[in-house]
Amino acid sequence: MPAKKTPVSNALLERISKHLYVPVVCDILDGLGVRDHTLRHDIRPLFPEARFVGRAATALAMDVYEEPEKPYDRLMSAIDALTPGDCLVCTTNGSMRGGLWGELLSTAVRARGATGVVIDGATRDTLAIVKMKFPVFARGIMSADSKGRVEVVDIGCPIHCGGAPVRPGDLVFGDHDGVVVIPQALTAEVVRRAEEKVFGENTVRKALAGGMSVRAAFKKYGIL
Hints:
nine-stranded mixed sheet; Dimethylmenaquinone methyltransferase; RraA/RraA-like_sf; RraA/RraA-like
């Protein structure tokens, strides 16, 4: 059964979307000793402006070598269970044998209020998804269907996606620099510290633009 999620408030999601960017969140997690929550570098958005933040709804997929009796069954269950503010995070453990994601599924999750999709495997229908401007982050593109190649076997479970642990309800944030996972218990603290760091970076930027040396700026502000 899917694990019950403790919702992060929509107000907090809005603060992240409006003020933050992935690298600054990574820096804050590093400072808290949480150093393994950035997804691998080759999980990329389908278009440069893609950006999302949402509560993780998880799915675990694996390679299969024949068509199952009920293809797509658990993937459909995962999608139909989405609520506004969720994002779907699916691990294939890096399998690229079939395109697990596509245009019709993107249409379905957008209609349910999902903010984005992350897959450490393959997607397809990429031009249509780009035209939709729906944020999909994937490891690559594969035109072959996932049916009989890659199948979702569990949903609502703890997973590792792109090398990072993801639990249902964790906050997942993606932009052009990549994807980071904020553990649910740390969300409020991470957002507060990240907002403070963004303010500090704005101050440093002005100092550097005014001619202050990098070394002097780092000595004064401790930010680089």
